[in-house]
What does this fold into?
Amino acid sequence: MPFPEGVYGLLAEFDSATSLTAAAAASYKDGWRRLDCYTPYPCEEAAEAIGFHRNYVPLLTLVGGLMGCVAMFLLETWINIWAYPLNIAGRPYYSWPAFVVPAYEWTILWAGLTAAFGMLAMCGLPAPYHPLFNAPNFRTGATSDKFFLCLEARDPKFSLVESRAFLEAMHPVSIVEVEY
Amino acid sequence: MATRDLSTNDPMLDPITGEVVVIAPGHSFKSVTEKISRIVLTAHTPVGWFFGLLVAGGVVMLLLTCLTWLFLKGVGIWGLDIPVGWGFAIVNFVWWIGIGHAGTLISAILLLFKQTWRNSINRFAEAMTIFAVVCAGMFPLIHVGRPWLGYWLFPYPNSMSVWPQFRSPLLWDVFAVSTYATISVVFWYIGMIPDLGTLRDRAKTPVGQYFFGLLALGWRGSVRHWMRYETASLLLAGLATPLVLSVHTVISFDFAVAIIPGWHTTIFPPYFVAGAVYSGFAMVITLAIPIRKFYHLEDLITIRHLDNMGKVMLTTGLIVAYGYGMELFMSWYSASHWEYFAFWNRLFGPMGWSYWVLITCNIALPQFLWSRYVRTHVGLMFIMSIIVNTGMWFERFVIVVTSLYRDYLPSSWGTYRATRWDYGTFIGTLGLFTFLFFLFIRFLPMIPMSELRVLLPQSKVKHLPEAAHEAGD
Amino acid sequence: MTNAHGHATRALTGDPAASLGLMAGWRRRALTFGAVFTILAIVLVVLAEVMEHDKFLHLLTSWLMGAMLCWGFSLGGLALLMVQYCSGGKWGLLIRRPLEAMSRTLWVSALMFLPILIFMKKIYLWARYSNPTDVAQALERGLIDKAQAHALNWKHPMLSPASVWVQIVICFVIWFGYMFLMNRWSLQRDADPQPNVPFWQKRFENISGFGIVVYSLTLTALVIDLVMSTNITWFSTMYGLAYLVAQGYAVLALSVITVVSLSKAEPMKTILRTTEQHDLGKLMFAFVMLNIYLNFSQFLIIWSGNSPEEISWYLDRIRGHWGVIFTFDFIFHWLIPFSLLLSRDIKRNKRRIVMVGMWMVFARCWDMFLLIEPNFSPRNLHFSIGILEYIAVPGAMISFWVVAYIGQLGKRPLVQTNDPHLAEILEAEHAHA
It folds into this structure.
């Protein structure tokens, strides 16, 4: 894939979550789909406003957990019945009550690892480089106290002049053109 | 019960809603960020920090000396013998793991219960978990005698065609503790990613930018990311809660699955878990009080936190007391001579003093926590936390040693005396824990900035019609 | 309308009479069920007497099961009431009045215990052989074995008719005291012209904190006396705690059923937001997990120890057809509610969460059967008419208890108004929380 060139999008800065959410909602209503909001803390309303309602991390976690559980239980069963059967104080080879414990631990282990790494993968992280970091106000403010709305050039509605005018109507603190 | 006058003047209660105010008023997103990130990013490390690190480092040297001698000579240098084959090593193991649990619980359970007061203390509580698990995990490993063969504990195909024995709680422990260590680190790290992003963006030195930039994984605060991130955090919290329960439960199985009187009792799982939380919260207080003083974080770790943690300690302490009570009661009710003797011996035998230390520290003195005055008094809470930590160490000592040294057969009775290497190793792990903690508070954000921002009143999104109305003014 | 936080709020309007109408309907239904079960119970008892010469044993043991369940609701209601005052949280406000109503039915369960105490000789070995001479004679005649004889003599200070009477009377006096104060203050709080929020919060916290301690101890004493001692030799230190959690499991399920069903009408229609319903669902999930955790731990420890003093209790419940009941117990009270409550959609759907709640109450009944009956027919379950009494008698008792509960529920407004959580609950909620 060739390295993209040109404009990544238009980045509008806001100073409160409320004005960001209002702007995001207006853009979504206007038909924008390739857009994103950037906030220094989780802002559910802004996510709702750009049409992001449901994510698939829970499903992934459930699958991961079940896999861990089944894997460990089968391993224990196989070891104790076929690979290395031992008589321990007369307990049956298939001592399911004892097998529950490690299987339980592995359920949690694999569910937890899938939740964490699945989340990162779905977010496309790690991504040390991102065009947005080229915007100076994004670098200094996005992770501390500023709120951003980015209309991306990938959206068919995007046009440097009209989109800028559209954003200006929402009274942002500033608008920056972000290059790749 | 007449608390009308006292409580209406409480500055930490919102007079209208009665809700708890967790952060002192007057902070903004910027000031919170500034206050916490400065501790990490400053070029001027406080001298006190170097001093502390030096002292802790000295104690780590003691640990290394003890371990070297242990590896050279074997576990014979400890006071272990028949009949007490589990001495300090296991006492310390259980004690440390228990301390770790409060960290996870503060993070996980309080997150699930939407208790926002946790937000200022969860990060360093989680760090405490990890360092405690490091100290804890070491003990069974060095206790096995040949720690370099520790990997034999895991089920892997090997040329000896031998597999681990899955009906033993000691093997369950391997899975419980390794899972716990892994999930704690993951939970801690995932929780830190947004703050690492903040530090990356605020770091002035190239080394800092590179270091935090690498760790932040390119976090940029997209709301889509935030939503997945929040879900994952909640899920990890939801998983960590039963994990904490299971870890200490499995540790209690180490004892309860055996049929030794004093060990074999069904209340062990819940009462071990409660005891773990009890000592863990005590350790959080022990750490929080000096830190808030030293770094002037009284606005963020408030008296309200101490009060709440005091209540948690009181609750878990009472559950533990219920456990002791039931053990004692059932040793009579069981109508079993062995049970009865085990407890008579525990109370009045040659090592009975340890039981009374335990009762004093864990049950009698903590009853002062019923008093609001004690719970909101910084000095008294610090003393209380030390008392509980001591008491919980003695609880494990009582369980391990006094159940073992006089069992069924009088001819095999013995006693237990710890050697200087036992004490050295234990004190050494205290040093290791402190050492790691000093590194943590200097190089990583000890209070989650992104979560504190949510606590500020201006973080709320006002309803759109109202917002429009305000804009119109 | 806006409150201090600048949020739009909804008002608490609407006619509460609709709720009373709902309750009247439930009451009629409960009365009908009660009547049907009573008739069925009488028929079964007569048949058991005539055909099996049961000597009213199953009537009494199934009565014990019914009494323990109803008592569980009333005392458990009181306990959960105290817990929610201490823990805080908006969910507490929602179920406060239903819990108060449950606690006010304590006298019903007190009455239900009377027949058990009067006819205790039929049920309990310790009541039948209450002195060393009787025990020695019974041992000689082979009515009890050596272990039982030893246990009977040893445990006599706690388990003798007089001692048990005294313990139960003391327990009930304490519970009535707490019940009276909690209910009285709740009304006084509503009548207070000033909000006095910290004052009332502290007052309730202070009584509840200590109350929970007292509750745990008295509950442990009572269940050891009345349930655990149906097997005189067996003991388990976890028993009281496991029983306590199981009680919370059923009480929470019942309060969720009540609140969600009442939300068809005002004021619950306004008060019950999806957020808090979801929270209650999570709490149910927590109890499901805690319950299996305690029970499985107890099982694993005793199974691993495999010592003759303890294992017999499980063998009584696993051998023969009891194994089927035991397996179903696991499926009913853990697997099914666990799988259902994992789903966020089920927790947020009114009809479904009520179904889950009902299932949990049923599972608790099943569990109670397994706690009691195997002590009277150990090692194998044989079908008999007497066993069927375990459906009819507790069924009738619970139905009549529900009549009393709904009667109490209708006596007070369904929402406590003098509480800061009310304003928060009346705020419009987030889309997802």
